Amino acid sequence: MSRVRKAVIPAAGLGTRFLPATKATPKEMLPVVDTPAIQYVVEEAAGAGLDDVLMITGRNKRALEDHFDRNHELVTALRRKGDERRLAAVTASDDLATVHYVRQGDPLGLGHAVLCAADHVGDEPFAVLLGDDLIDPRDPLLGTMLDVRERYGGCVVALMEVPDEDIGRYGCASPAPGSSPDVPRITGLVEKPAPGTAPSNLAVIGRYVLSPEIFDVLRTTPAGTGGEIQLTDALRALASGTAPGGPVHGVVFRGRRYDTGDRGAYLRAVVRLACEREDLGPDFRDWLRKYVANEL
C-alpha cells in the first residue's frame, strides 16, 4: 500500500459566522490565543509526517499564503532587536511543510473542495483536515488514523460520540454489527440526520484519510444536503461497497478537541487553550476565577 504523504486542507469558506471580522480576514487566520487556527492544523499534519500540504482556497485568502511564507523584513527587525522569543514564533510556520494552494472557485461544498485536490494528489491516498476542528497534540488522532489505514486499506474517518440531541449537526456513521468499539467498520453514513433517525451516536469530525478512488465517486456525486456536493455521500458509496475504494473504518476519538466552528465554540477554545499555557495560564486562570465569582 502507498504511504500517505499529502494532506489537503479546505480553506475556501466565507466565514460568515464571524462577520464582520472575516470581511477582509480569512476565518482560518483568526487567532486562537496568539496563533492562527490554520497553523494548528498544518502543525498537526506535519507532526503526523505529512510534509506536502495543499490548501483549497478562494477569494480574499491571500493572508494564508503570506503567513506560511518568509517575512524577511520582520525577521530582520527582530534579529536586530535580539528578540529571539518572537523571532522563533514568527519563523515557526515557515518550514512546517511544503504548502501549495489551489482555488476552489465555486463554493459547491466539501466534496467539491476535495475534488479540487485531484490533480495534486494523483493516485495516492491522502488526508483531509478541516480547520474548524483543532486536535490537541497530546491526544494524537491523525497518526492513529494512518495506522488504521495501513492495517485495513481503504478510507478512515474520525468519529466522536455525541449526545443524541446533537447528532443532527453532524454526519453520522453506521457501524457494522459486532465491529470494534474503537475502530468500527462503517457500513453507512448520513449527513445531518433528522431527529430520531440517526443510526448511532457516532459523529464524523473533521479528519479523513481517503483512497484516491474517492475522486471518481465525487465526480458523479450529485448535489445533496444544502445543494452542495457532500463528501459524506461519496464515502457512503465506498462504505456500502457500491464503488471501489473501501472499506471505510472509523477511529473513535475520545481526546481533547477544540471546536472553532462558531463564535461560542471559538471563545471556549481560546479560553481552554489559554488556561493551559505555561506563560499565560496561571495569571489568566486566577483572573477567570475572580471574574466568574464576582460577575456570574
UniProtKB/TrEMBL annotation:
<dbReference type="InterPro" id="IPR005835">
    <property type="entry name" value="NTP_transferase_dom"/>
</dbReference>
<dbReference type="InterPro" id="IPR029044">
    <property type="entry name" value="Nucleotide-diphossugar_trans"/>
</dbReference>
<comment type="similarity">
    <text>Belongs to the UDPGP type 2 family.</text>
</comment>
<keyword id="KW-0548">Nucleotidyltransferase</keyword>
<protein>
    <recommendedName>
        <fullName>UTP--glucose-1-phosphate uridylyltransferase</fullName>
        <ecNumber>2.7.7.9</ecNumber>
    </recommendedName>
</protein>
<dbReference type="GO" id="GO:0003983">
    <property type="term" value="F:UTP:glucose-1-phosphate uridylyltransferase activity"/>
</dbReference>
<dbReference type="Pfam" id="PF00483">
    <property type="entry name" value="NTP_transferase"/>
</dbReference>
<keyword id="KW-0808">Transferase</keyword>
<feature type="domain" description="Nucleotidyl transferase">
    <location>
        <begin position="6"/>
        <end position="269"/>
    </location>
</feature>
<dbReference type="InterPro" id="IPR005771">
    <property type="entry name" value="GalU_uridylyltTrfase_bac/arc"/>
</dbReference>
